[in-house]
Design brief:
It is a single chain. By secondary structure, the chain is an alpha+beta fold. The protein has helices at 4-18, 40-43, 127-133, 146-153, 160-166, 175-185, 198-217; strands at residues 25-28, 48-54, 57-62, 66-70, 76-81, 95-100, 104-109, 116-120, 258-262, 265-269. Strands 1-6-7-5 form a four-stranded antiparallel sheet. It has a four-stranded antiparallel sheet with strand order 2-3-4-8, sandwiched between helices. Strands 9-10 form a two-stranded antiparallel sheet. A hairpin with a 2-residue loop joins strand 2 (48-54) and strand 3 (57-62). The relative contact order is 0.15. The protein binds a DNA duplex through residues 1-3, 6, 33-34, 56, 70-75, 94, 110-115, 155-158, 162, 165-168, 174-177, 220-226, 263-266.
Length: 277
DNA sequence: CTATGGACCTGAATGC
DNA sequence: TGCATTCAGGTCCATA
């Protein structure tokens, strides 16, 4: 599920609640992606000083150390106020991690358990380094330009769709937004990344930023599991041009939208608006 | 180095 | 109704 917009929406909603709060307890249930040697008792008492994001990771910056939280395919974070100790928040199926604060609780719910929580002494130590340093450019950062995108694409012969998904050039574009961005850029998903001409790379850059921004403003996409920490669903899924629209007419040219497989993932595109090279 | 397929896990939807 | 198959927002890892 969560691609960059969903993670960013989660971060924005969470930040004012969590920042400055003292962590009283961290509870971990069923193992997630990695059975990490987090020692919850060592973290209690530390305050959260910031809530950041890198790619699809939410970063809870503690007074000492950081926690990386990844939502995997089906994860979401829930912020639950706890009025009194007696009135405990209701547990739900697939709640696997919880952070208890003074008057509220943060809960990670993740049915498929592809998500992860990782502790590291800092951004550049331990497992966090390994996970973060291989990530591509942040799409909302100044380093992401038509030129730097073009240079990144030049290193890959794989189809542009798969290169976008891989996150080694630019992060945050997942399966929904990759199809949407390519449609808006008029680029065929099978075109080798290194064969994207400069003019197309410029459109790709512009629409990557535009689509992701619009999705953040709409609260992300809710296909099934995703909700912001307060329970709000996203609305981007109702404005997709191609994703999930196989067989339906293109909103621009009327050609039926195609669905194909690329690297075990579905890709949606309009053969009329995204002609083969 | 890049590219590719399998693995991880659960639930919902579809088909016979 | 029951059971098997397919699909779903990600990304790590082993293998070419």
């Amino acid at each position: 599920m969560p691609e960059l917009p969903e993670v960013e929406v989660t971060r924005r909603v969470l930040q004012p609640h969590v920042q400055g709060q003292k962590l009283l307890a961290l509870r971990m249930g069923k193992p997630l992606r990695w059975p990490l040697g987090i020692h919850p008792e060592e973290l209690s008492g530390r305050r959260v000083v910031a809530v950041q994001r890198r790619g699809k990771y939410i970063i809870l910056q503690l007074e000492q150390g950081i926690l990386l939280v990844h939502l995997g395919m089906s994860g979401s974070l829930r912020w639950v106020a706890v009025p009194t100790a007696a009135d405990r928040p209701s547990r739900q199926l697939h709640d696997h991690v919880s952070w208890e604060f003074e008057d509220a609780e943060l809960v990670l719910n993740d049915p498929r358990r592809f998500g992860a929580v990782v502790f590291a002494p800092s951004m550049s130590e331990g497992m966090a380094t390994q996970l973060l340093q291989k990530l591509g450019m942040e799409p909302f950062s100044p380093e992401f330009t038509p030129e730097s995108l073009g240079q990144g694409l030049a290193r890959h012969r794989a189809p542009i769709k798969q290169v976008l998904l891989a996150g080694t050039v630019v992060v945050g574009v997942g399966n929904i937004y990759a199809s949407e961005v390519l449609f808006r850029s008029g680029i065929h998903p099978f075109l080798p990344a290194c064969a994207v001409p400069p003019a197309a790379a410029e459109r790709l850059h512009r629409h990557t930023v535009n689509v992701l921004s619009q999705a953040v403003e709409l609260g992300g996409s809710t296909l099934r599991n995703f909700h912001a920490p307060g329970g709000e669903a996203g609305a981007f899924q109702s404005v997709t041009q191609v994703y999930g629209r196989a067989g339906q007419p293109c909103r621009l040219c009327g050609t039926p939208i195609l669905r194909v497989q690329q690297g075990q993932r579905s890709t949606f595109f309009c053969p009329g608006c995204q002609p083969a090279v």
